From TrEMBL:
<dbReference type="InterPro" id="IPR000835">
    <property type="entry name" value="HTH_MarR-typ"/>
</dbReference>
<dbReference type="Pfam" id="PF01047">
    <property type="entry name" value="MarR"/>
</dbReference>
<dbReference type="InterPro" id="IPR036390">
    <property type="entry name" value="WH_DNA-bd_sf"/>
</dbReference>
<feature type="domain" description="HTH marR-type">
    <location>
        <begin position="1"/>
        <end position="138"/>
    </location>
</feature>
<keyword id="KW-0238">DNA-binding</keyword>
<dbReference type="GO" id="GO:0003677">
    <property type="term" value="F:DNA binding"/>
</dbReference>
<dbReference type="GO" id="GO:0003700">
    <property type="term" value="F:DNA-binding transcription factor activity"/>
</dbReference>
<dbReference type="InterPro" id="IPR036388">
    <property type="entry name" value="WH-like_DNA-bd_sf"/>
</dbReference>
<dbReference type="GO" id="GO:0006950">
    <property type="term" value="P:response to stress"/>
</dbReference>
<keyword id="KW-0804">Transcription</keyword>
<protein>
    <submittedName>
        <fullName>Transcriptional regulator</fullName>
    </submittedName>
</protein>
<keyword id="KW-0805">Transcription regulation</keyword>
<dbReference type="InterPro" id="IPR023187">
    <property type="entry name" value="Tscrpt_reg_MarR-type_CS"/>
</dbReference>
<dbReference type="InterPro" id="IPR039422">
    <property type="entry name" value="MarR/SlyA-like"/>
</dbReference>
Length: 153
């Protein structure tokens, strides 16, 4: 198998492209935000009051690294940690007003770059690729060091 056609190489390259487009768009919008920080903001906008472990599962990131992401977002005033009402040892996370504003500012830019990530594909091909990426990602989810773990409703 030729290296440049290996799935791992292609996935890594697509991630580089996606991250590059994201960072370039954020910089041009005057926003200081990483893809993982955006994912955390997105999850907290959807599920305020979750704990850090749940957040890590929702964004499929290891707890230790996500802890640093949460620290940075807290330092910049985008989220706050409060004592859990059900477990005094746990901390729940919520976006602050500034966090909501940051998320709302970034969201249209993130949405706008999605077609660029899959440039060269028509709408039908994009939909099919996304379907296949979801399928293969979920099939291998448990092989990940940081599997996706949606919160239980």
């Amino acid at each position: 198998m030729e290296f440049h056609r290996m799935p791992g190489h292609l996935v890594r390259r697509l991630n580089q492209i996606s991250t590059g487009l994201f960072m370039e768009r954020m910089a041009s919008a005057g926003l200081t935000l990483t893809p993982v920080q955006f994912a955390a903001l997105n999850a907290l906008a959807d599920r305020p009051g979750i704990d850090q472990a749940t957040l890590a599962g929702m964004v499929a990131y290891d707890r230790a690294t996500l802890g640093k992401v949460v620290d940075r977002l807290e330092e910049r005033g985008a989220l706050r940690r409060d004592v859990s009402p059900t477990d005094r040892r746990a901390r729940v996370l919520e976006l602050t007003e500034a966090g909501h504003a940051l998320y709302q500012s970034a969201l249209p830019h993130v949405q706008a770059i999605q077609p660029q990530i899959l440039t060269g594909l028509n709408e039908e091909e994009r939909a099919r690729l996304i379907e296949l990426l979801e399928k293969v990602t979920m099939a291998g989810n448990d092989m990940s060091r940081a599997p996706l773990r949606p919160p239980e409703d």
